[in-house]
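The step that takes the researchers longest sounds almost clerical: writing a folded protein down as plain text. The outcome of that step, for a single protein, is printed below.
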Amino acid sequence: MKHAGFTLLFLLLCSVAAAEGVWRVKGHAFSNVHAWQKGTDVRVSGRVSGGPVRTPFQAVIHVQNDEGKTHRVTIRKTAFSGQGETFEGGFRATKRSRQWQIIQIEVLGADPAEIQRQKTQSKTLPHVAAQYPSVPGDMPESGPPQCFPIKTKTSGEVSSVLFSSMRPVCVTVRNRRSGRLVLMKNVLPHDLANTSLPCGEYSVKIVGDGFVSQKDVSISGQNQVIDLN
């Protein structure tokens, strides 16, 4: 009985991750942020309160395991009023780790007050026509994996496409023959949202945190999964 008790205590210690103190980022207070692993599923949860209202609210939580390997967990909320709200996200790990700890928290996007100040300032300045298109035609080669979502009008037989990725990435899809931009979107781990695309041959560019890759794909049939890993 005593041996069984020690075994249970050991298993609990192996699966638990240390809860962190209060993190203050861009006026927001992140409290009780902790990470734990169950099987290959790593979960990160906590509470955020205070700071400016954001619509949407996006944060990236960096976690590290006992081997020193780091991962990013992106938290998204449609709106954040400044009141206390809980959050949870996660990812799948290739193997089990004994411990996970929070090493950094980022809040994406500029301060809403700064955005409003810039808008007010721009109204007082003379309007100058932009020399470049306001919507980017492609994604950056480096930097955080965020892009401006674009979907152009297309015709022909349509397939329901699911983009599968184990990490947050931005995807640019172009017609392989004409080079015409067809789609640009953000893809998150375990994202189950399908995208309607016409059947055909495409070039897919994948931009993540510190890496860029490209692959050619052929879309046919009613349903298709494109692996971005």
